[in-house]
Amino acid sequence: xxxxxxxxxxxxxxxxxxxxxxxxxxxxxxxxxxxxxxxxxxxxxxxxxxxxxxxxxxxxxxxxxxxxxxxxxxxxxxxxxxxxxxxxxxxxxxxxxxxxxxxxxxxxxxxxxxxxxxxxxxxxxxxxxxxxxxxxxxxxxxxxxxxxxxxxxxxxxxxxxxxxxxxxxxxxxxx
Length: 175
Description:
alpha+beta; 41% helix; 175 residues; four-stranded antiparallel β-sheet
């Protein structure tokens, strides 16, 4: 016979029974961006995400579009491209499963600085800024670790770019 307390305990602490959900939660916890989240926190974040598929060559977003979401690649590959003055696209980087892009949209709502194109059949989790902002206001224990990870990632990128600019200006090889 169950009691109200045991029923509550079962609802709050029951293990995830949906294998796909458990797999997605475990996947989120492997990401550098979300490494500090518990399974419960990752599960809550997952409820704020939208899963979407893209075919080869599909545009996920274009340079100049309003930034409104972070994208996490579950499967497939995405090319991040930028156009030059004559309109020709250059691939900046190809990203694969377990990576993310578009994180600046969580910080500001400025236009996208590059385009994202699916290279092959790709599945992404999309975390819209509005959903993230609402989640952060309710659950700082989830938002703070994510924002810290975004800031650390941006700091690494700035340091790397500073080093590249220095090498270009001084003609020094990478060391």
